[in-house]
Structures are given as structure tokens and as C-alpha cells.
Amino acid sequence: MGEDADNKALREEIAGLEPRLQAARAKLPSKTEIRSLEPCATVETPEMHFLLLLSDSALPLGSFAFSSGLESYTAHRPSTSTPRETTERFLKLSVDSLSHAALPFVLEAHKEPKAALTLDDIFDASTTCTVARRASVSQGRALLTVHEKSFSSSLPPSPELEAYRRALRTENVRGRASGHFPVVYGVLCNLAGISLEGTGYLFLLGHIKAILSAAVRQSLIGPYHMQALLAAEGTRAIMDTALTVAKEIAVEDAGQSVPTLDLYQGRHELLYSRVFNS
Amino acid sequence: MPKPPPTPPPLTPSKPTPLPGHGSIHVRLLPPSQTTLPHLHFTYPLKLISTPSPPSATNTYQTVFQLAYGGGLVSNDQIYLRIVLEPSSKLCLLTQGSTKIFKQKVDGDMTRQVLDVRLCQGARLLLLPDPLQPFEGSVFSQVQRFWLEEDEEGGGGGMVVLDWVTEGRAARGERWELERFESRNEVYCVGSGRLLLRDALVLNSLSSTNTREESLRGRMDGLVVFATLIIRGSAFERLATFAKNKFSKEPRIGGMNFDTGDNGEAGGGDGRKRWDVLWTVSEVRGFVLVKVSGWVLEEVRGFLREVLIDGGDVVGEFGEDCFLCLR
Known about the structure:
Chain B: Residues 1-22 are annotated as: Disordered. The complex is a heterodimer of chains A (278) and B (327). By secondary structure, chain A is mostly helical.
């Protein structure tokens, strides 16, 4: 009984001290408090932090304006299957095409950021679909701007991205860079310390999210099904295949593996009414 | 690091390599307007036959037929053709019938076809072959490289290149049953080696073990042919403009056609047949690319012929005899 009474007294003492401690802490200047949190290794590594930032749909790249050909694809293929099947098929075709065309450039730019301008020129020469070019340049330039205005203060200085930005505005037309999305993406992810695999994965995920989000806004699928597809084992499998395929392809050997997509996407401009830019 | 660019064919004709499947053509203009072939070499299994332009033609050119024994390429055939067009010369390169690509015989074998063409100032090239026809189980890779002078714009030269592939032996129900097919068209600058354009098609049969995957045939949405027409240079500017205008006048998809009631013609305003094709035009770095596909080969043929004839330039430069593959 005596023990119990002692414990009770101690508990009461603690209960009384705790608010006093908190009140005392609150009186300290806020700066000190932030410093006490600074070793943020428990929160996440900087790589993971940038991985999450770059995968955020709030990243101002304007990706929501592009459907990567989905809109034109559905317009050219009047309902032979359910909207859900259409979306899933298009997703597979588009990821396969991406793994042979753009993804090798993302990986190469990650491996060789110094070659960014050469890669940009080669990608520009290799992308023959006007609509796809427009989408790539628009998002690539937006990502360069995000780096300049938002990330450059938190990331180590990047002479590659500086030179890239300058090359967009150079006087000489022949030496002018275009700012293609896959190349900018690879260089930036390298700078942020994201691994090669992580970069490829992130680029694929961004592509898939953009397509599915376009599918939701086109009322092909609902938002719950979009999340179901994103989470699905099958989707992860196609991403895995795409990454494996792309790793084996040198930028010189990139090409179009789904020729129908170039045709459908190239005809996007002929749509009487359109929601998206690609 | 991206690989350094390949080297262009040398301007001075060298002794031809007597390797199987190798060939070289040199095209020269004898002033005022006589185009000749000072060099024409080939080794089995490649065969080249040349004919000068008909005497009536005011602006002469040379026509060369590229033939293969048995009308096709068998497993592991390696064709390497090198062509130099000297300043202001004109060459029309054709085939006689589609190039059949036979089944791979030994694992690891690849049937390959490489074409290197160097165009000097003012030279004009017309490459209008019949379509490639990859058979079931074939493994094929084609690379066509074109080398242009740095400031070729002012020289009045240019090129029109058609590259197309069909599904296989359709009569036997063979539709896109190939194992692997690759066709690349690359255009480089002679001086800097800079890549100006790369149009590459890479088709892979998908592993049959994975039943969840759609087959290559399924992926093609019933289309039986894919054609790319590459147009470049001031000599073919009219054709390029024509193609762009034609595409911009295509009927809108999913819109109302307000014209139908007026002229009562199903085939569009001028009363001509509307070819049942799926096509698009893009303008990329000084090139105009026309991509055409369709559900029937004849429709695509007809469409291409119409574009090339109505575009004017090709007939003006090479007459109508060059449309063999489009008849």
C-alpha cells in the first residue's frame, strides 16, 4: 500500500511538472527549437525528400495539360472495348513506347549530365511527332524553371543546368537547345542525388500518373480506379519491364516501338474539340 | 556518353570492297545536264541495274534498280550500298517488287541492309523502293544514312525518301509475325557530323510465353503497312508545302461536316477518291515527314502516288517513270 501511495505521488508530481516544462520550452526563441530538430535523418534522406517532391502532382510542370496521345487514341478508336479496357491498353502501349524512345535519354542524361546539350540535340532530331515534341519541350522548360526558381537554393550548384538554360536563349539558332523533358529530368535527378533506377522509376511513374489523370478527366475511368491501377501489381510489372528494356538501349538505338501511337498522336491537331495539348 | 557520329562515304571513288553484298554507286553531272555513273559496282547477293533517263527528258537523271536474288534477303544476308551524288547530279533509286525478308535460320543471325548516301551541293535523290516485307520469324535491321552539305539549303538540292514496311505474307494469314524488325533513317551534316534527323521504327515480337501481353499483330490495330516519306531541300519545297497544306485541310475528327450538303460528293470537294488511310504530317528541323498507314496496301499506295504527283516536284525532276512501286 505504501508503495502505491508513493507512485501516485510521483505521478502527480510528473503531471504537474510537464506543463511547466512545456511552458518553459515555449518561452525559448523559436530558432533554438528548429535547431533541435535539425539532424533530420529520422525524417527522411534528402534523396527521398526530392523523390517525393518530384513525384508530386503539384510540381508546376503543366503535365495536366498533356494526355500523351490518349485523347486522340480514344477519338480514333470508337468504342470497341469498355473505357476501362481502353485506358489499360493505352497505358501499356504508351509505357512500351516510352521505354524505347524517351526513357533511354533520361537514363543517359542521369549518367552523363555533362552531355546534356548533345543529348538534347539528339533527342530533338529523334522525336519526329510534332505533338510529342511540343509536350516534351513545354514540360522540360518548365522543369528547368522549377529548378532555377525553387530548387537551386537547396541543391548543389549545377553548371550543367546553368549551361542548359543559357543554351535555350543563345543567339545562334543552330546551337540553341530545345529543353526536352527527358534530358532535363535525368540531369536534375542526378543533381538531387536520386539513383539511376530511382530516376527511371520516377519518370515512368510521372508518365503513368499523367495518363491516368487524363483518363479520369476524360471520364474513361473514375478516381478510385485510377488509384487501383496505380497500386496494381500489373502496373508495377510494366514499369519494371520498361526500366529493364530501357537500360539496354543506347540513345543511338532508341526508336518508336508502337508506330500506331505516332499516327494517333500526330493527328491530335485534327480533333474537332480537344481538352489536352497532346 | 553518346557515340561519335559515323563517317560519310569518301568523295573520291575508291576500289570497291569485294565483300558479299557490297556495292557502290558514283553519280556525276557532265555539264550541261548529262548525269552519268562513272562507278557502279556490286557483289552477290546484291545486284544493281542502271538505266539512263529517257532521251526526251530535258533534265537528265540516272535510275538504278536495287535487286536481290529471289526477290528478297535470306537469313544473315548483309547488304551494304554506298552512294555518292556529286554536285548537281540526280539519282533515282528503285526496286522491282517488295523486298521479302525470310525467316531466321540460325539463332543469332541477322539480316542487315545498310545504305550510305552522300549528297553534294545541289544533288537530288529520289528513293522510292517497294515496301519491305518481313516474313514470319525474320530478324532484320536496316540503316539508311544520308549525308548533306552544311549549307545545302541554297544549292537547289534535296531528297525524297520513302521507307515502308508491310505485315508479311497476308495471303497466308501472316500478319506481323516477324521476330524483330528495325528500320532507321538518319540524316547527318557532312562537316560537323551533327545528326539532323533520326526516324526509327523498332518492332519486336512479344514473348509468346507471356499470355497477358498483347501480340505484335494485336498492337497494330489492323493496320497492314507503315510508310514514312521524308522530304528535304529546296528542290522539293513545293511537295513539302503541298503535303502540309493537304494535312491542314483534313476533315476534323468528331466534328460536323458542314460541306456534305453543298457539293454532294462523297470524295471531297474535287470529286476524287478519298483514300482510306490514316496519315499525319510533321515538320521537324527543316524536314517534312509524311507518315501514312492503312488497312489495305493499295489505299496507301494510291495515296502516296497522289501526294507525289500532285506535289509536282518529283514529276518535274524525275518524270512519272519513277512511280513503279506505287502502281
